[in-house]
Amino acid sequence: MTHEEMIRLLDDISANLEKLSENAFLQILELIDKGYSPRDARIAVEDALKKLNDERTELIVKGFEAIMGAAIAGEYVKNLKIGGLTLSKKLYQNKEDVSRLAQKIINDALKERKTLHQIARKLYDGYDFQDDPLKITPKIPKYLREDIMKASTRRARKLKTPALRAAYVKLIEDAQKKEVSRQLRAAVYEKGRYYANRIAQTELFRAHSEAVARKMMQDEKLEVVRIDMSSTHRIVDICDYHSGTNQYGLGKGCYPKELAPIPPFHPFCRCKLSPVYTKSAKNARYDKNAGMKFIERLPESKRRSVLGNESRVNYFMKKKPDLVAMLDKKKEYKTKRLGEI
After folding, report:
1. What is the domain range of residue 142?
2. Residue 147 contacts by C-beta under 8 Å, 6 or more apart in sequence?
3. Nearest residue to 326 (alpha-carbon basis) of 291, 298, 293
4. What does the pLDDT look like over 158-180, one tens digit per residue?
5. What does the DSSP assignment read for 220-248?
6. CA angle 17-23-27, nearest 5°?
7. What is the pLDDT of residues 297-321, one digit of tens each?
8. Residue 214 placed within a domain
């Protein structure tokens, strides 16, 4: 699989993950309209997110099969280590986080619905109240009483009493549907989609890069490998260091084959390993100050974007540690070299 084919595969998987997440979000949002009890809502959320998790895993398995060019057992992919956890546990962990958050949102919404029902009866039905805050004396029609729990606003809009119509629509439409939809989208769709997509994009790309690295290591004519940044790269980070510094006197981003770092260097990284047949690694010498030179020539704001924050910048400038080793401490993985494949 070429680098360009790999990028197309990642884009397709990203789009499919987005569709799966959107469907799960809409499915869970329907729980509010069905008026489930908290217990039923919890069961339904668990079922929806378990299905979503299984679909995501299956999609990632198919991605690995496309990269490897062969059928792969789902259990093999699920047990791949990502940092200290397997892929399966990583996705499960995310499902549990999203599930707890979604359940809380739905349970709160169902409690709110009960409150709104009580308010509606008190304000509009004339039941046992001395106060009439909306100055309404007649009861609302029976059909509206029956529709309160269905969040029906179509009939409410036909009411001629402006205060009653405005209050009813605002309570049901604004307080429930819009806010609950927003919260569930953030919890189920945005958070879950981003997390799953990050794992899929990064791990599939890692598998591709390591497959390319193995082929390069088997090529006896190849001595030098170059790191090329993706054209979609927009911010200054560790990729700029790997691709833009002359660490071995072979030119920017060029390394003796065994010492070349293997992408990805961060989540969603798409840097490319390229062979350089026109250069020899015979006289390569490592410049231990390459990291310091790279950081020193960056504007202060860019230094923070590479190292993480101001305190890390100050530590680096004072202690002058190896840049890659320092950044590896806060990553799930240590940077792997071609010679380690």
Report:
1. 3-202
2. 155, 156
3. 291
4. 555 555 555 555 555 555 666 67
5. TT--EEEEE--TT--S-SHHHHHHH--SS
6. 145
7. 888 888 888 888 888 888 888 888 8
8. no
